[in-house]
């Protein structure tokens, strides 16, 4: 009941500020020298059922995020953005996280999470960027107490191709898990359709205290080259990560590549993303492939996701220095199909209902432990935004 | 794990049952770098609800074991005495 109450409170918390905005025409004043604000958020609340051999999991839970930002443009074309991103998942999920068969990444009570997606930190992002044009080139400097490292495709919760899906990809920790990185300094150069970003950040994944603000040295480095033109967005990126996993004392390298497409408007749109990620660790190379998409027509949307991810579930335990054995790999294939229908659309946002089913191809070395699992979600979804400066499309 | 210690006789096996909500990985010995008592490794990785027997213990001795996913948690360390 506490979790249900937290979900309701979070829903109201998001809805109230959006409904109390000033009239839209007043907010869309983009003139230089004044601050514009915006706020947007998404909240899923629903039932999650994971059917599997030996023991089924089910949970009433909520995945959610809220993103306020401030934007100011100066007379010379330079601009400043101050951004935050917050999640109530520490209150709307169990501390161990959201049940999800085959999911891995981060820890709970010192042990690696297996079959659970961790809750996101209360403070997922908090920082600012300064952007200035120099001729045909644009320079961007970013500094974040918690921010996105220049690594991987846009995080799944910001991808139009994944926006309707309450479940994190199994490839999350191969692609976009560094969207919550404690301490990031980044520098970017944009010219024509190309952007080159480099950054220094703290490479270790967030700790288990979801409410605190982690602070640590900038000990890892990444770079991302991206190209954006019309509906297309491509990127390749890589990073050297200093002891990214709390259960391992070893460094790792992550490389990713992705292609995304989004075209349409609120009535009809198509979005898809194809991505590849590889974690190079002393225990071996773990790879994941992802293809996901969302097709929306008026009030109806269908979405899907296909993944192929190599998991080291059978050797996921703590490894002291000196133990460098190659991990056994279990290549999991997952296919999700989902449907979402808008119920009510008002100025405060859109309320929708949806559901999905995921089937899995289980590798031989996990068949005895998992059988043939299937997972289901039935949920209500709220999405809303208000203010002047919007970066996201869904 | 309950019980943390158990005494059996030579020729017997031990059944590990995972009644937790998370997976556990049963490994013999206390040092993850040097697994001991290979009979215990047969119990191995157990998902919630799953159970599996160790191999047959063929000699009298004391075998310690730990959960390889939670090395620092005493509740997941124990000992099998073979008489």
Descriptive terms for the model:
heterodimer; A: 394 residues; mainly beta; 16-stranded antiparallel β-barrel; two-stranded antiparallel ribbon; 5 helices; 18 strands; 9% helix; 56% strand; B: 83 residues; 5-stranded mixed beta sheet; two-stranded antiparallel sheet; 1 helix; 7 strands; globular
Largest interface pair? A-B, 25 and 21 residues
Multimeric status of the protein: heterodimer
The biggest sheet of chain B amounts to: 5 strands, mixed
The helix fraction of chain B, in percent, is: under 10%
- Ends of chain A: how far apart? 31 Å
Number of helices of chain A: 5
Would you kindly provide a written description of the structure presented here, covering whatever features stand out?
By secondary structure, chain A is mainly β. In chain A, 9% of the residues lie in helices and 56% in strands. Chain A contains five helices and 18 strands. Chain A has a 16-stranded antiparallel barrel with strand order 1-2-3-6-7-8-9-10-11-12-13-14-15-16-17-18. Chain A is globular, with a radius of gyration of 21 Å. Helices cover 5% and strands 37% of the residues of chain B. In chain B, strands 1-7-6-3-4 form a five-stranded mixed beta sheet. Chain B has a two-stranded antiparallel ribbon with strand order 2-5. The interface between A and B is medium-sized, with 25 and 21 residues.
């Amino acid at each position: 009941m506490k979790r249900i109450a937290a979900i309701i409170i979070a829903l109201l918390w998001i809805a109230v500020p959006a409904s109390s905005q000033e009239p839209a025409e007043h907010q869309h004043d983009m003139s230089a020298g004044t601050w514009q604000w915006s706020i947007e958020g998404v909240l899923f609340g629903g039932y999650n059922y994971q059917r599997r051999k030996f023991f089924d999991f089910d949970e009433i839970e909520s995945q959610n995020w809220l993103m306020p930002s401030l934007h100011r443009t100066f007379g010379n074309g330079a601009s400043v953005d101050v951004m935050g991103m917050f999640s109530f998942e520490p209150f709307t999920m169990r501390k161990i996280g959201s049940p999800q068969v085959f999911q891995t990444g981060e820890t709970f009570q010192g042990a690696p999470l297996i079959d659970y997606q961790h809750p996101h930190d209360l403070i997922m992002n908090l920082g600012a960027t300064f952007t200035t044009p120099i001729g045909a080139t644009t320079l961007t400097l970013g500094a974040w107490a918690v921010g996105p490292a220049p690594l991987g495709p846009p995080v799944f919760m910001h991808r139009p191709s994944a926006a309707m899906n309450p479940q994190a990809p199994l490839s999350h920790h191969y692609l976009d898990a560094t969207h919550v990185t404690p301490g990031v300094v980044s520098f970017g150069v944009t010219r024509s359709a190309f952007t080159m970003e480099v950054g220094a950040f703290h490479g270790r994944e967030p700790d288990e205290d979801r409410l605190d603000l982690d602070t640590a040295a900038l000990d890892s480095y990444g770079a991302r080259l991206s190209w954006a033109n019309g509906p297309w967005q491509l990127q390749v990126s890589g990073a050297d990560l200093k002891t990214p996993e709390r259960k391992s004392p070893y460094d790792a390298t992550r490389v990713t590549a992705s292609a995304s497409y989004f075209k349409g408007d609120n009535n009809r749109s198509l979005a898809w993303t194809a991505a590849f990620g590889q974690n190079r660790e002393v225990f071996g190379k773990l790879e994941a492939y992802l293809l996901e998409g969302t097709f929306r027509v008026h009030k109806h949307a269908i979405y899907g996701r296909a993944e192929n991810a190599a998991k080291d579930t059978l050797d996921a335990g703590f490894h002291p220095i000196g133990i460098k054995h190659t991990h056994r790999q279990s290549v999991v294939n997952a296919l999700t199909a989902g449907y979402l229908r808008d119920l009510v659309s008002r100025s405060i946002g859109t309320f929708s209902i949806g559901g999905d089913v995921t089937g899995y191809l289980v590798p031989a070395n996990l068949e005895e432990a998992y059988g043939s699992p299937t997972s289901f979600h039935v949920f209500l979804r709220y999405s809303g935004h208000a203010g002047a400066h919007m970066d996201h499309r869904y | 794990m309950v019980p943390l210690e158990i005494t059996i006789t030579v020729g017997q096996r031990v059944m590990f049952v995972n009644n937790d909500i998370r997976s556990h990985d049963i490994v013999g010995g206390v040092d993850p770098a040097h697994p001991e008592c290979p009979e215990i490794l047969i119990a191995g990785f157990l998902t919630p609800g799953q159970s599996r027997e160790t191999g047959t213990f063929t000699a009298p001795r004391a075998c310690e074991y730990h959960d390889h996913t939670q090395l620092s948690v005493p509740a997941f360390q124990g000992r099998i005495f073979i008489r």
